[in-house]
Amino acid sequence: MNVVPSQFICCHAVMWPPPKGSELESILQSESLKNWNFDIFRFNITSNGHPLYWMLMAVVHEYELPRLLDIDFKALHGFVRRLEAGYNDCLYHNSLHAADVTQSTHSLLQSQDLHKRFLPEELLASLLGAAAHDVGHPGVTNVMLRRISHPTADRYAAPLESHSLDLVAAIVAQPDGDIFARMPPAKRQKVLDNMREMILHTDMTRHDELVT
């Protein structure tokens, strides 16, 4: 659980938008993208093993967030590629799971036009929180990390979730990963704060706070 994994070296072979007339372009059309029954396993094959890159890029553009929030494309591309690369090859907490959660979040936002109640920066925080919530996850629980006295468990009350936030901060610190560079400081901080709360609340011990 290093702060900046070696796999953060960014691969530029994948680049938005999807090829014209391709199955990938068809799957990422608006009607398909918001479908609650979206077939994430087929999408994993169609995206050639890059489900998180294509999913996050698709939903961010679906809400026109690069235009509305003045997000530099190169920074967005670098951020998303590094984020996907930061996921470990776990059986469950992997980039496919992150893509699935991101698509599900988009589907919920589309339900009853819920997204219209959100500001652009709130939509961005929601989508980034979904996409980044398990980045760097080692495939074990917080309880396990505490039992083996892992350094991350000694540092944080919510080790896994805090580690994911550390990795997001590390990506944003990269020259080609700061998607917030053009945002006013207050708006930038709002996105980061909202995303932080969303990711921290994926800690199972905090779920009661959301339903009581």
* Terminal Cα span: 33 Å
Main beta sheet: strand number and arrangement? none
The radius of gyration is 17 Å
Low-confidence stretches: 2-9
Percent helix, as a range, is 55-70%
Helix-and-strand structural type: mainly alpha
Number of E strands:
0
Summarize model confidence as the mean pLDDT: 92
Q: What's the helix count?
A: 13
Molecular structure report:
The structure is a single chain. By secondary structure, this protein is mainly alpha-helical. It is built from 13 helices and no strands. It has helices at 23-27, 30-33, 40-46, 51-62, 65-68, 73-85, 95-110, 120-132, 142-147, 151-155, 159-172, 185-200, 207-211. The protein starts with 22 loop residues before the first helix and ends with a helix. Residues 2-9 have low confidence and may be disordered.
Give keywords:
212 residues, mainly alpha, 13 helices, globular, disordered N terminus
Fold blueprint:
Blueprint (H helix, E strand, L loop, with lengths): L22 H5 L2 H4 L6 H7 L4 H12 L2 H4 L4 H13 L9 H16 L9 H13 L9 H6 L3 H5 L3 H14 L12 H16 L6 H5 L1
Helix pairs in contact: 4-6, 4-7, 4-8, 7-8, 8-12
In a nutshell, what does this entry contain?
The protein is mainly alpha-helical and 212 residues long. It has helices at 23-27, 30-33, 40-46, 51-62, 65-68, 73-85, 95-110, 120-132, 142-147, 151-155, 159-172, 185-200, 207-211.
